[in-house]
Specification:
CATH architecture of the largest domain: Alpha-Beta Barrel
Largest sheet: 9 strands, mixed
Number of domains: 2
CATH topology of the largest domain: TIM Barrel
CATH class of the largest domain: Alpha Beta
Low-confidence stretches: 1-43, 476-480
Structural class: alpha/beta
GO molecular function, one term: coproporphyrinogen oxidase activity
Strand content: 15-25%
Number of helices: 19
Shape: globular
InterPro entries: Coproporphyrinogen-III_oxidase, Elp3/MiaA/NifB-like_rSAM, HemW-like, rSAM, rSAM_horseshoe, rSAM_sf
Distance between the termini: 46 Å
Family: Belongs to the anaerobic coproporphyrinogen-III oxidase family. HemW subfamily.
Protein name: Radical S-adenosyl methionine domain-containing protein 1, mitochondrial
Helix content: 40-55%
Radius of gyration: 23 Å
Strand order of the largest sheet: 9-10-8-7-6-5-4-1-11
GO biological process, one term: porphyrin-containing compound biosynthetic process
CATH superfamily of the largest domain: Aldolase class I
Number of strands: 16
Mean pLDDT: 85
Length: 480
């Protein structure tokens, strides 16, 4: 499910340097010399006019709901791994294809899809013949590149070699295997429908069928999880040799079984210190095994980073279809209903021209700026300061740099020049004397791995505060 890719990392228990507070007068004086107004900036408008080339497809079916899950799903029951003629599945796929067909696309803006991601739920429960209908609907509506990355989330125990080969023939060339843990006790405690034996069988099937590009998903900080358990899961993952690994920290959501039973940081959940240690262990072991830590929760062998996820991290537009999914088109996010009956009504309204899911409302520069900062700082590449300046002006960049200086000194934030060489604190302080980022020589700001990533919530929130203050003061100047 798309939401999982935005799982926030936990607060780190490390000494936190005091961040400078910028007074309103300082910000106003700074903005008086701003090079351009945000909403008049050509660079930002061009970014918002990019035609989507990615599509997320939500297939909500599961055998049962996991104890931590708050996604919109339909529980089919565990009697069968796959139900070919279940009317709930067949009916949903029909409505999904209708939504795709009814989506408004400008002919001159139409572009073939470069990535498609089937998320859930458990997409591997949907029979390949029905997955084929969705892919055909996408091809008819948007076109599909010959070398498109087509990903599918698959859970152990929900597919066999025959199913795998059939979806591969449809064009699925990337598999995300929802393992979560390699301990029977942990799988049962979080309500997973599969066991450890099915995990190993699923890995064998993936390898037997020759899937070249595949990922293992793991969850840290589960109830009763120990350091030895986590180390074993990481070791067995590395031994399985996937080309990609996703590591998520358990989030306790209201309304879930875990939400009713547990409080984050309290037994039987690991403490915040233990959770931070889990994250550091994952970073160390996976990086030592030649996985590139290219995003807070994502590790990939060279050349096997998830192309679809880069759409999110670079804040590019994308289509989304299905129950509860959220698209991002024209600088606006649009969410579908989370209940099946409401979703069907939405599709009917879409077909009748009563709703526009492509985004035609008002775009707020502050929202766009915060999105870009949040998503960019989750990645190893970091925030492109030149592009950010082109879109939002040099003054907001100066304020952001000033706010981050204490964290540069503490090692949580890394500043890089155009050749991605680290800039020292003296060089950075000197760069603040320059008015434009070209003169500053600062090309990127990124969070260090793992300490900076562990502190990402605080560092990103600090950036949000800078953006809020700067944007509010800019509006004040315009009114005056």
């Amino acid at each position: 499910m798309l939401k999982s890719t935005f799982t926030p990392i936990f607060w780190a228990l490390v000494p936190k340097p005091m961040s400078p507070k910028l007074s309103p007068n300082v910000i106003i004086n700074t903005f008086a010399n701003s090079t351009s107004l945000v909403r008049q900036n050509v660079s930002l408008k061009q970014h918002q006019c990019i035609t989507p080339s990615s599509a997320y497809i939500h297939l909500p079916f599961c055998r049962k709901r996991c104890h931590y899950c708050d996604f919109p799903i339909v529980a089919l029951g565990s009697a069968s791994a796959q139900i070919d003629d279940d009317p709930r599945v067949v009916n949903y796929i029909q409505w999904l294809c209708r939504e795709i067909s009814a989506t408004q696309v400008e002919l001159d803006a139409k572009a073939p899809l470069e990535t498609v991601y089937f998320g859930g739920g458990t997409p591997s429960l949907v029979p390949p013949r029905l997955v084929s209908l969705v892919l055909e609907a996408l091809k008819m509506k948007f076109g599909l590149s010959e070398d498109a990355e087509i990903s599918m989330e698959m859970d152990p125990g929900t597919f066999n070699a025959k199913t795998m080969k059939e979806v591969m023939l449809l064009g699925v060339n990337r598999v995300s295997l929802g393992v979560q843990a390699f301990q029977e006790k942990l799988l049962k405690s979080c309500g997973r429908a599969h066991g450890v034996q099915e995990v190993h069988e699923a890995i064998d099937i993936v390898k037997l069928c020759g899937v070249e590009n595949w990922s293992i998903d793991l969850i840290a900080s589960l109830p009763h999880q120990t350091s030895d358990m986590w180390k074993e899961s990481l070791r067995l993952t590395i031994e399985a040799e996937p080309t990609h690994v996703s590591v998520y920290d358990l989030q306790i959501e209201q309304g879930t079984k875990f939400g009713n039973l547990y409080t984050s940081g309290e037994f039987p959940l690991p403490s915040e210190t233990q959770s931070a240690d889990f994250y550091k262990m994952a970073s160390r072991m996976l990086c030592d095994a030649n996985y590139n830590h290219y995003e807070i929760s994502s590790y990939g062998k060279s050349g096997y980073e998830c192309k679809h996820n880069f759409t999110y991290w670079k804040n590019k537009p994308f289509y989304a279809f299905g129950l509860g999914s959220a698209s991002y088109i024209g600088g606006l996010r649009f969410s579908r209903p989370k209940k099946v009956n409401d979703y069907m009504k939405f599709v009917e309204n879409l077909e009748n021209g009563l709703v526009n899911s492509s985004g035609d409302g008002q775009i707020h520069a502050k929202d766009t700026a915060t999105d870009i900062v949040m998503l960019s700082l989750r990645t190893a590449r970091g925030l492109d300061m030149k592009c950010f300046e082109e879109s939002f002006g040099s003054s907001i960049v100066s304020s952001l740099i000033e706010a981050y200086i204490p964290y540069v000194e503490s090692g949580h934030v890394v500043c890089l020049d155009e050749e991605r060489r680290t800039m020292g604190i003296a060089e950075l302080n000197n760069s603040l004397l320059h008015k434009t980022n070209t003169e500053r020589k600062l090309a990127y700001i990124r969070l260090s791995d793992p300490e900076g990533f562990l502190l990402s919530n605080e560092l990103i929130s600090l950036a949000f505060g800078v953006i809020d203050n700067c944007m509010d003061c800019l509006q004040h100047l315009e009114v005056v």
